[in-house]
Amino acid sequence: MACDNQGMKSLQQLLTDRLTAALGADPELRPSTKPQFGHYQCNVALRLGAAQGRPPRQVAEQLLAQLNLDDLCLPPQIAGPGFINLTIKPEVLAQAVGDELADPNCGIPQVDAGPVVVDYSAPNVAKQMHVGHLRSTIIGDCFVRVLRASGETVIPQNHIGDWGRQFGMLIEQINDEQLDLDALDLAGAEELYLRANAHLNADSDFADRARARVVALQGGDPATLASWQALIDLSAVGFAQTYQRLGVLLTTADLAGESSYNQSLAGICADLEARGLAEINDGALVVFVDGYDAPVILRNSAGGYGYDVTDLAALRQRIDDLGAKRLIYVTDARQHEHFMKLFAVARMAGWLPETVEAEHVGFGMVLGPDGTPFKTREGTAVHLDDLLDQAQALASEEVAIAAIKYADLSTQLQKDYVFDPARMTATTGDTGPYLQYAHARVSSILRRAEADGDVVDDANAQISVLIEPAEQWLALSLTRFPEAVADVAGSLTPHKLCGYLYDLASQLSSFYEQCPVLKSQGPTRTSRLALCRATQRVLAIGLNLLGIRAPSVM
Ligand code: ARG
Q1: Which of ligand 1's atoms lies nearest the C-alpha of 160?
Q2: Pick from 330, 339, 277: which is nearest to 308 by CA?
Q3: Does residue 254 have its Cβ closer than 6 Å to ligand 1?
Q4: Distance separating alpha carbons of residues 83 and 66, to the nearest angstrom
């Protein structure tokens, strides 16, 4: 295969390059929709024929006459009105799988286009993570893994809610109760939050004291700051426990809470005023953005700073100080407008140059069994730990986490999905545990071969016999892995990687049905074992990119 510093070219890319050269245009080559159409199909002759007023078959014939694909394909077929069907030669497939197995990046194209900041998880201090944070954490973790595997430099940013008016009531309540913060954990802090909130609503004197406490916090009063910091620290411990339970990559080093931007908020306001973008509206300093009724709020009428301006400061810092070339924000879809306005203001201010891409990836809600948004019996958002407990009641932790992550990632992110532990943890169907099981099964074959002394050497594996259609399709599926990963890195659509892995696992099971491995002999056995090893590796790497563990035994 062609090798350069970009890694190897996929078969689809090699074919596309050839067809493009002959055609002078994008051939729109796609994987075939049906096995009888070969491995790849190209329907461009139909479009060109219609545009040029020529029979598409003639266009197809002419294209093929200009082109020699003999080194890669069996003789191309023209089908129906002018579809071109291409079938890769078995020896080319074998070579491509061998190259992929020998490549340390498993063929994934490597690109480093400058730092990518991924803003995700972002729970709030003194509150447990809820189901929305679960989705953000799982999706963001997948992005980080996929981008890193693609050679990118990724900077995770956990924009936790560690600032705001709620700290006034929390700290007053702590003082009233003479609470020992050293003895408080995150669950306890959340109960404190509920008590403080009830107190605030019931007692106007307390509400006044809470407001004064906010002023003391903003003014840097040492005792107030100490309580505030203690709440952050104990929350961070709770978050870290959940991250560990979930098996995500976030660490305390990635914390970049809202409070870290306090010093730059006044400057953001002044800058936008100087540029003539900000205006006073009902006593607040705001920026209006075309197409939206509600403005971006820089400073409220009481002089306070909030969520919007903090995000502007964070965006600027990520571009100016972290050197970000791509910004990705992962939150629930209801925050979409917030981010669209944020990006618009940053572009107007010149803080977000055209060379930097900014994307909001909004996700849908997690629904309960009755199809309505997941709530506790008390009507509050369900805690993430409760969800994990529900799935873990049906499966081991490793399988339960896989089930949840896969359910979260395998449908289009924008869609809502139903949290159905029984379906999610099933080892059949399009589930995380099914893919784990596929990995465990192929691992067991390799283990048994190893016991006979047959160990596959990745760097020199001999995939030499690809006669059966099932082994050819499995090989073809393996060669598509790098493209699937590159696609997800670009389009931020993990469901495509899930779909790819599910297809690979299905090809693997047809292969088992039609091609005995351990009972075969000679070069056939060697070749099939190498194919098993290549599949095991792609399944393991692919699952890892989803944040799912690939057990060897289940
Ligand atoms: N803490 C917010 C929440 O719980 C999410 C923050 C998302 N990130 C951001 N840069 N605004 O809804």
Answers
A1: 1
A2: 339
A3: no
A4: 16
For the segment(s) 3-88, the CATH number from 3.50.50.60, 3.40.50.1820, 3.30.1360.70, 3.40.50.360 is 3.30.1360.70
**Of 330, 251, 241, 248, the residue nearest 548 (C-alpha):** 248
Is ligand 1 within 6 A of the CB of residue 136? no
Helix (H) or strand (E) holding 147: helix 131-149
Measured in Å, residue 158 CA sits from the centre of ligand 1 at 9
Looking at residue 371, the DSSP 8-state letter turns out to be: S
Q: Which string of DSSP letters, residue by residue, matches 324-358?
A: -SEEEEEEEGGGHHHHHHHHHHHHHTTSS-TTSEE
Q: pLDDT tens digits, the chain, 554 residues: what are they?
A: 333 434 578 899 999 999 999 988 899 999 998 889 999 999 999 999 999 999 999 999 999 999 999 999 999 999 999 999 999 999 999 999 999 999 999 999 999 999 999 999 999 999 988 888 999 999 999 999 999 999 999 999 999 999 999 999 999 999 999 999 999 999 999 999 999 999 999 999 999 999 999 999 999 999 999 999 999 999 999 999 999 999 999 999 999 999 999 999 999 999 999 999 999 999 999 999 999 999 999 999 999 999 999 999 999 999 999 999 999 999 999 999 999 999 999 999 999 999 999 999 999 999 988 888 887 666 777 788 888 899 999 999 999 999 999 999 999 999 998 999 999 999 999 999 999 999 999 999 999 999 999 999 999 998 999 999 999 999 999 999 999 999 999 999 999 999 999 999 999 999 999 999 999 999 999 999 999 999 999 999 999 999 999 999 99
Q: What CATH number should be reported for the domain whose range is 432-545?
A: 1.10.730.10
The finding on whether 308 has its CB within 6 A of some atom of ligand 1 is no
- Are 448 and 442 spatial neighbours (Cβ–Cβ below 8 Å)? no
Task: Judge if the beta carbon of residue 547 lies within 6 A of ligand 1.
Answer: no
Q: What angle do CA 38, 439, 506 make, to 5 degrees?
A: 30
- Domain assignments of the chain as residue spans, ordered by start: 3-88, 164-250, 432-545
Bridge partners for 124 per DSSP: 161
Q: Is the pTM of this model over 0.85?
A: yes
Which is nearest to 219 in space by CA: 298, 161, 158, 303?
A: 303
Is ligand 1 within 6 A of the CB of residue 122?
yes
CA dihedral of residues 209, 214, 215, 219 (deg, nearest 10): 130
